[in-house]
Amino acid sequence: MTKQELFDKFVELMGRFADIRAVTALRDGFIMTTPFTICGSVFLLLANLPIPGYAEFMADIFGKDWTIPLNAVAGGTFSVLAVIAVLAITYKYVEAEGCDAIMASILALTTFIIILPPFAATPDGAVVNDVIPKAWAGSNGVITAILVSFFSAWVCCYCEKNHLGIKMPEAVPGGVVRAFEALTPGIILFTTAAVIYGVCHFAFNTTFPELIFKIIQVPLQGLSDTIIGGTIVASLQSILFWAGIHGPNVVGGVMKPLLIANSLDNQALLDAGQQLVNNPAAKIFTVQLDDVFYKSGGCGITMGFLIASWLISKSDQMKSITKIATVPGLFNINEPIIFGLPIVFNPYLLVPFIVAPLAAFYVTYAAIAIGFMSPFGAVQVPWTTPPIIAGLLLDGWQGAVIQIINLALSTAIYFPFVRMQDKKMLEEEQEAA
């Protein structure tokens, strides 16, 4: 089998993977959580703007507890991320199957709450019973939320498609019919949840979310927070996008829950009064590093391509594409280049499209590892925030400096390849003339 045939098989395999119902539901479900995390980030950013004297200025105006209302918003978004994920993932899965997505989402949420620990510990060690603990309704419960979503969606769809439920007369209103149809999947889900809760409690003296956290989530987060993990994520996104598959969506559907959990773990350290810089417990590879620092201008850090093109392009084709793509590129939208130049299946640009984001990832990872930048907490910025501004908001002037370095590095990497592409286009134009 030739290299081309192997590559074609790989692309075909990843395309099939991207079309798996569970993968698309996971991806689309976490996309639905974006408004909550971004809005929570805005309030958290307002409470922690990296401006010298800002906290003191606000305290003088609003009092020493001025951050409490802002942190309440962050707690009502980030701290219930798993709850939001249960609803969103289940809804997207069941909706794609053409079944009753609203009822399935409610049943999944109830199932998730049943298996949560029914208590929370206070800072002084006291235990408060009959509560929903935010510790497990947030980032620590993300993997459990995903498992509950998939199982609940499958049960609801199976029951509805096979008409397993209480049959009601035709004269009964539709809303009542749907409510009674939900009894069968509800009984199945709640009985399963009760059995799981009992087994975990009596056999292991724990709860299902705690068990899943120890066995699955902690190792996965640890694997994601490594140079190897980041290399795989960054390169795979570019390879798939070059092959015409939306790499960030495919890879992000699997990795984004873990990277968000990494950032929320860092926020928990901040909330406990710890510093993140040079803290061995802090995670380096978080969702902010993925969204902002090696995707300036879009996947493949194509802002470097645009800068290089502005500097050296001579062909009318390259100049036109560059002009069209620059404004969207400033807001990290690079489809005009990906499909308009195109970069897709373009042999001239495969190497820089993979190498540039990898270089940016290594620079940013090293900057955090040596303490030049701080690891990221829960604060996020919208993915459309222009480069340098995004770095400034996330990590102060250090973040802006690293983004400038990444842009300069990516421009240098793209430079010779853009020259080759431009030369080819110029030759084509001269032949046509």
Brief overview, please?
By secondary structure, this protein is mainly alpha-helical.
Which class do the helix and strand fractions yield?
Answer: mainly alpha
Uncertain segments? none
Largest sheet: 2 strands, antiparallel
What topology, given as strand order, has the largest sheet? 1-2
Shape: globular
The overall pLDDT average reads: 87
- Name the helicity range: over 70%
Number of helices: 20
Strand tally: 2
Descriptive account of the structure:
With 433 residues, the protein is mainly alpha-helical. It has 20 helices and two strands. It has helices spanning 3-18, 21-32, 34-47, 54-62, 68-75, 81-96, 101-115, 134-137, 142-161, 174-181, 183-204, 208-224, 227-242, 247-271, 287-293, 303-312, 316-330, 335-340, 350-369, 389-432, and strands spanning 119-121, 127-129. The chain has a two-stranded antiparallel sheet with strand order 1-2. Helix 13 packs antiparallel against helix 19 (350-369). It is globular and about 75 Å long.
